[in-house]
Amino acid sequence: MIRTIAELPFVSAERFGDRPALQYRSGGGWQHQSFTEVGVLVDALARGFAAYGVGPGDRVCILAETTPEWTLAALGVLSAGGVVVPIYATSSPEECAWVITDSGARIVVCADEARDRIDGLALAESPQVISLESGLESLAQLGSGQADLYDRRAAVQPTDPALIIYTSGTTGPPKGCVLTHRNWLRIGELTEELNYVRAGDVVYLFLPLAHVFAQMVQFASLSIGATLVYWGGDLTKIVPELVEVRPTFLPAVPRIFEKLYAAMTAGLDPAAVNQAVSVGLRIQQLQREGSAVPAELAAAQAELEPLFAKVRGAFGGRLRQALCGAAPIAQEVLEFFHAAGVPVLEGYGMTETTGVGTVNEIHLFKAGSVGRATPGVELRLGVDGEIEMRGPHVFAGYWNNPAATAATMTDDWIRTGDLGEIDADGFVRITGRAKDIIVTSGGKNLSPANLENDLRQSPWISHAIVYGDRRPYPIALLTVDPDTAGAAGPEEILKVVTEVVDSVNARYSKASQIKRFAILDRELTVETGELTPSMKVKRRVVADNHAAVIESLYT
């Protein structure tokens, strides 16, 4: 029985042996590493990290895109008794500096292409930097002659930190969510209970391993005996790689399905698409129930099959189910794929709950909902309708931030910051946000307050309101201070404001940057309902009053 994630690669090696554990593109083709090979390499890396000075509880940052080396490095750190601290590959130097400093990391394992993010950082205690590409091989060689770490791994406790994942708050810098070995072991248990990932599955992974969703998939696959297939690193090649790899399970964010939906329905009559979806959903329901398909429906299905076969083919033709998380997805997109025989199931969780919370199941789902509570998870609604959770999936608190932890927890219950409804069947629908966090349709969490505060540092900008929840990217509505602008013309104002936005963007990762903005033709006022008497911005009223402007920034 596995007590901690530090033992996972070795237990999996014993259970699954020569089955392929990792698959990745190399030399123009696909290469594999078996569970046995992964166990041997992780053991050598663990000894190498120990020889390099990583002791029990020491934090090691990993700054890189999703690759097999990322996984191997993380498993090596964990098996040496250390704690993994992921950093997004797109993070700015300032964001990297914050995570490294706040976590107290001793070592940063860094991809060569991201090295410029940390070189030259003015840190009080500069960590050692190891190249993800060349450094791991050296570590493995170093570890081959070191003492066995069995006793050190045995000393790791289920309640000890395994990962510290930094996530944006409503204000201020990101906070480190401490996720324990017990939290991650629960993911493995849920994998078997919910039957989402099965032994022998082929799982295509392009999600960033700095995100809790990708970590869930990684640990679930390793614990159940599935093959993790790593993307080639090019967003434009995801669909062709899906056709090559032919996954049976696909974890993804809404943008992938939204883009495929747009491509598959381009040029089709919307009424015809709606009719096709209606027929497809009815047939899928009858098949789940084990009922016969009436002749009339069967004839309609035959006519629709070329379209639906094309949809299934885009995923490789053998996708059993997909899990969509990290951000909301439109119901019409979900229904289209379900009708075509590609079940895209929506789930809900947060970093503080190890990505776990609610999920739809292939035999029990409601489109438009985020599913029912997963086994072992307790749900309730607070007095204001905020979703609260309790269970073994809830984190141990924010790293070195007891005040923030206390503000988020009530006894054992965590307040999610999301407003919702729970129907009579236990299905949850998200209705809004109690806390001011944006989640883009790509799954990126960001705090609009940080961007807005930075923009307002310029004397030219009187108000800045950032939007982007459930949208592809952040945008901003700006108002110009009339006293500062004086007699400046529109062209000069646009030039100055563009420079301000560019300057602020440079402090943030690419996914958090404002992609487009609009300068409103008037100030926000109390009379229009856009400001409170104390001059606080009413974000929703501004959005309603300027809805056309916001839409123009996305078209």
* CATH class placement of the largest domain: Alpha Beta
Mean pLDDT: 89
> According to CATH, what is the topology of the largest domain?
Rossmann fold
Corresponding CATH architecture of the largest domain: 3-Layer(aba) Sandwich
Could you say which overall geometry the principal axes of the C-alpha atoms support? globular
Strand order of the largest sheet: 11-12-13-14-15
Going by CATH, the homologous superfamily of the largest domain would be ANL, N-terminal domain
| First-last Cα distance | 54 Å
**Secondary-structure-derived class:** alpha/beta
Q: Number of helical segments?
A: 19
Strand content range: 15-25%
Low-confidence stretches: none
What does this structure look like?
The protein starts with 7 loop residues before the first helix and ends with a helix. The strands form seven sheets. Strands 11-12-13-14-15 form a five-stranded mixed β-sheet, with helices on both faces. Strands 16, 17, 18, 19 and 20 form a five-stranded antiparallel β-sheet that branches. With 555 residues, the chain is of the alpha/beta class. The protein folds into three domains: 5-21 and 34-156, 3-Layer(aba) Sandwich (Rossmann fold); 255-435, 3-Layer(aba) Sandwich (Rossmann fold), CATH 3.40.50; 447-552, GMP Synthetase, Chain A, domain 3 (2-Layer Sandwich). A hairpin with a 5-residue loop joins strand 21 and strand 22.
